[in-house]
Write a structure and sequence with these properties.
By secondary structure, the chain is mostly helical. It is built from 6 helices and no strands. The chain has a domain of 86 residues. Helix 4 runs parallel beside helix 6. It is elongated.
Length: 197
Amino acid sequence: MAEAMFGLRRRLPSAMLLALALHGCATSGETPPEPQRPPPSSDERAGAMRVLDWYQGMRELDATELAKVRRQYADKASSAEVQLRQALLAAHPQANNLPRARSLLENLLANQGAEARALHPFAQLLLEQIGERQRLDAAAQRLGQQLERGSQQLKDAQQLNVELQGKLDALAEIERSLPARPATSTQPAPAVERSAP
């Protein structure tokens, strides 16, 4: 009887774990789908399309024209569309003010007005792209610093190599200037016989 109780006690925890695992598998259903956002209305799409069309024109501008447009938008009221345009101007490769663009986009995403909500997907996409650009810029900067350190180490090693070569040349010159050693006989010394005790 005691042996049966001991065997049951040993098997009970593993049986309970097995039952719990099977129960978990049986009740794990599919996760409910995320609520889908209704497709944007034509008015909502119009704002994003206006911004995209506007940006296509900005790509063709040179630095002075782009600076002029930036000054024009700096004075405008901050509607959601203007904020998005300001963010695009700040993120433009000729401006490359990514922290400002990021700040403008984060403010736009925090705005829950109807006009702003219509531009949220576009702003979120831009924010992700800007984050990636910042990450790549930081990685490029780190690689540049490593390259500079490696270049400096190479220069130091080359300088050390020149110094060591100079020392070797000086030692070789000293060795050549030493007088020649007298010739020693190459015959082996005669073996000495030992007498047995």
